[in-house]
Amino acid sequence: MKDPKANLELIKEFGINGYENIRTLAEINLRTWEQLIEKQMDTFGLLVDTGIEQLSVNSKSSDPKELFNSQVALSKSLSENLAGKGRDAVNLATQAGNEYRSWLENGINTFNSKVTAAAEEALKQ
Questions:
Q1: Where is the Phasin domain (predicted)?
Q2: pTM strictly above 0.85
């Protein structure tokens, strides 16, 4: 690469591609964090709602057997909902991992193609 103009053009292309890659990574990060926060807020809301229901059941029931059955039903419902929230979180992590992998592979392919093109151009000169 004896031509300074070609060298500057290549550096410019790497800079532009680097900026675009970082912007895309920031978008993936932001989207993932927003989804994670949403899942956490849903889970927190579930816990608060269950706590409120538990207080309601405790204040309404005076029969120990009925109170016990209500607590068991609440516990079962909470555990099922938490398991569902856990599955959602695993799915979100898998989706984010796939997006990160795709981003990385795309960046590597772009870099390789630019370097290959520059090497071929240098060999022609």
A1: 13-106
A2: no
